[in-house]
Amino acid sequence: MKGIGTSPGIGIGKVFIYKTPDIKVIQRKIEDKEAEIKRLDKGILETSKEIDILHDLALKNMGKNEADIFTAHKMILEDPEFYLAVKEKINIDKINCEFAVKEVSETFISMFENIEDEYLKARAADIKDVTTRLLRVLLGIEADDLLSISEKSIIIAEDLTPSDTAQINKEMASGIVTEFGGRTSHTAIMARTMEIPAIAGVKDILKEVIHGDLMIIDGSNGEITINPTKDTIHMFENRIKESKEAKKKLQTLKGQETISKDGHKVELAGNIGTPKDIEKVLENDGEGVGLYRTEFLFMDRERIPTEEEQFQAYKIVAEKLDKRPLIIRTLDVGGDKEIPYLNLPKEMNPFLGYRAIRLCLDRKDIFRPQLRAILRASAYGNIKIMFPMISSIQEVREAKSAVEEIKEELRRENILFDESIEIGIMVEIPSVAIHSRIFAKEVDFFSIGTNDLVQYTLAVDRGNQNIANLYSHYHPAVLNLIRMTIENGHKEGIWVGMCGEAAGDEKLIPILLAMGLDEFSMSASSILKARYLIKNTSKKEVESKLDEILSLPTADDVERFISK
């Protein structure tokens, strides 16, 4: 069997099937509204205590970053907007608090699930996790205990919430396999932190195994072996030993520059979504931040964050990076990234709609405070501004003009900022890649967003499971666009980075190096492995094969060729 590898490594153990409690919420009419609200308050208090316990467990077993997930869970639970909406439903509809919680939470969950960005989409799981826990407490349902696993096991489940994952006894958990989920879920992130191999998206896995089956999983490629032979077990045990030795070697790369075998230097940076994410980038010796997704500052709240709130969030990261580069992407929402208080129109095709830079240029009330905050924060570090979803030269010029207007304002107010702050764009639309020589004359850098570039080049909705097999960053058309963008950027004297998933792909890194990519920005956990790969790759050697690779007819042909 095969799924999506979400946390690398080999896991060998007996199958432990974990089933989440079946929570059925029935609507009931109530007479005593005050009593029902008291039940709600009591349930929230009990749930809050449970979350405190999970926070302490996560802090002990994983560290502060992962424990912060439960700080966020508590904020969701105690969010006044959520509480007041539930209370209002109880009062107006005269219904039981469980059903009111279910109705309100489904609205919030739907908002996040309809977001295109995988990283943000996965936050729906946080809201679902918190409200499921609250419903379980309100209904008096006991929870299963993953801490009680007493032998080396592979945990099999439909899905695991962050709360479930926090309770895992990492000494006994050899691996995790789920029917749902993906690389950007908190569960996947936590599994990688705990260094537990994990695989997601394995359809019908619960029908294929029983308690006690022996299983081997490879979290790197998503492969699963059920009831393997002794020879197979021995082979994988040797691979585990080799992997442990390789991890030790990776730690020795900290503090070293990222230079290929033949002396070509590149920069390895990390992608972040919140200020706390910077800790992992620094732990893994990231040379900067290649993508700060500012969307998080705008989500799960009732109003646009103020200039001051944004300034503080950017300043914290800039100072922690201590003059290493920080690329802040301006707000990338709109279309399918629904934020209720922005009152954005419903669209037939949100992927091609009113979003990102298109929205910001139209909504000065959003764009101007963000630009002011970024420019003010630039006095405290090496900040660069990046505009997303650019499709025309006119958009670039309008956005740059807005920056110049804000600069003039700050000068008049005697507020310090970096006068020479670099401005770049994301290359994620094929027309921009094709026309990149012209765009390069307008900006200081490019950052290739492969997630959307693949989607738009191949006309494949990357969130549609029915056509997931058609979505591939190995497609020759995509690779040719990437090469064209890098070459055109260099011809005009600007540097070119990449902040999409492809930047951390172990198979693709040597190809991108050979194409001349200057900066690779990826998840923090991939940085040291990428450094190892680059240090052991000759740029010129791979360069000699580029024409042959890019002339192959299919994505599968490319992947096979570079996997040799």
Based on the model shown, name its key terms.
single chain, 564 residues, alpha/beta, Glucose Oxidase, domain 1, Enzyme I, Chain A, domain 2, TIM Barrel, 3 domains, eight-stranded parallel barrel, seven-stranded mixed sheet, 24 helices, 16 strands, 14% strand
Short description, anyone?
The protein has 564 residues and is α/β, with parallel strands linked by helices. It has helices spanning 33-61, 64-77, 80-93, 97-113, 118-121, 124-139, 162-166, 186-194, 205-208, 230-251, 278-283, 307-321, 356-362, 364-377, 393-412, 430-434, 436-439, 450-458, 476-491, 509-515, 527-535, 539-543, 546-550, 555-563, and strands at 4-7, 10-17, 153-157, 173-178, 198-200, 214-218, 223-226, 258-259, 265-272, 289-293, 325-329, 382-387, 422-427, 445-448, 495-498, 519-522.
Topology:
Layout: E1 4-7, E2 10-17, H1 33-61, H2 64-77, H3 80-93, H4 97-113, H5 118-121, H6 124-139, E3 153-157, H7 162-166, E4 173-178, H8 186-194, E5 198-200, H9 205-208, E6 214-218, E7 223-226, H10 230-251, E8 258-259, E9 265-272, H11 278-283, E10 289-293, H12 307-321, E11 325-329, H13 356-362, H14 364-377, E12 382-387, H15 393-412, E13 422-427, H16 430-434, H17 436-439, E14 445-448, H18 450-458, H19 476-491, E15 495-498, H20 509-515, E16 519-522, H21 527-535, H22 539-543, H23 546-550, H24 555-563
Parallel strand pairs: 2-3, 3-4, 4-5, 9-10, 9-16, 10-11, 11-12, 12-13, 13-14, 14-15, 15-16
Antiparallel strand pairs: 1-5, 2-6, 6-7, 8-9
Helix pairs in contact: 1-2, 1-6, 2-6, 3-4, 4-6, 12-14, 14-15
